From TrEMBL:
<feature type="compositionally biased region" description="Gly residues">
    <location>
        <begin position="49"/>
        <end position="70"/>
    </location>
</feature>
<dbReference type="InterPro" id="IPR017853">
    <property type="entry name" value="GH"/>
</dbReference>
<keyword id="KW-0732">Signal</keyword>
<feature type="region of interest" description="Disordered">
    <location>
        <begin position="34"/>
        <end position="70"/>
    </location>
</feature>
<feature type="signal peptide">
    <location>
        <begin position="1"/>
        <end position="23"/>
    </location>
</feature>
<protein>
    <submittedName>
        <fullName>Uncharacterized protein</fullName>
    </submittedName>
</protein>
Amino acid sequence: MNTMKSPGSALGRSALITAAALALGACRLTGSLDGEAEGEQGGAPPVRGHGGQGGGEDGQGGGGDGGDGGGDASTVACVDECPANGGGITVGCKTRFLFGMNYAWHNFAGDFGGIAAWDKRGVTAEAETHAKHLAGMRANGASVARWWMLPEIRGESVVFDENGDPAGLGETTRSDVQKALELAEQADINLMFCLFSFDNFHPSRVDGDVKTVGISPLVTDAARRAALIENVVRPIAQAVEQSPYRHRMVAWDVINEPELAMTGPSPYGDPDYAPDPDVEPIAHEQMEAFLRDTIQALRADSQALITIGSASMKWSLAWTTTDIDFYTFHMNDRVNRYWPYNQSPADYGITDKPVVMSDFPTAGLSTANVSKLLESWYSQGYAGAISWAYRDAVPNELASMKAFVDAKGCGVRF
């Protein structure tokens, strides 16, 4: 749901995602968001059925050890003194309703690596600006900022070889990733990095001496896909894990609204895909292979939780066989006509993993203001809500979101 227009951890992979697990009372030593030595527990969610779903229009649009807690891998007491009512996202011993805001960028596709020809600099060079924005989100109640990394590949973010294959990160990309984590620490806010977007599937083009590389030809070729993951995804994940502030990394959102870059039928009973008209769409099987490979790499190099930013409940079955920790879906007025906001995850047949609404207007919907949206999701068992977007929000919208956090208290604060 991109109203902001583009121009032209470590937290423990197996950190449980259900509040019920905390009642077991003992956890294996792991990191927490605040860097203390806290724990994780094992457990398996129930299996979700793959029933079919009706059609209709769609909406568009924790990794690691978390600080120097000390000790070994022996069990320690794990008590959550303020668990979220009705469940949430669990990191270490803390189960919270994951409340946050989409940042989503300062420079679209330029925050990590920069775009020199357009005088767009990365996080390191514009640290003061990013620090102000992160602090502003935190001051208005956000515990998490969803931050887009490579929604399109252009400028200096990624280096390509003579064959047009990804060969590595640009000169400042790694330092920009680590500076973002440092700034998050300073602002006392946590990050959900969104690696890719359906926008990446626009055809390659040149705008004002800047080449933007479309990734459809990369992800549909096994060797080129491997190069993208090995030389781009893994170094980014490694940069996070090697940061002293890696405990600020809540989760990876592998891709924003992948369904808008897909065509053809769903193998799991969802309606057919309806791609954005400006992309080079790929089949479900091709996107699934790309996401599976990316997730496998993230699991190898990062302990942060993982999700996929689905465009809407229309395709609620799309990623049920991928190795993600929780589901995220987006909401706007068009989606709401067919998949209303005031239904619970169980009403939509989702019972195996937590659900976070990770993109909805800060102004609310035509039928419900933002306060009503948040109250509905909080009371119906959703695990979190992340509004779109901080830089679009006006003061009264920010005040409404802060009022929600203040009213709910520590159960919505990491």
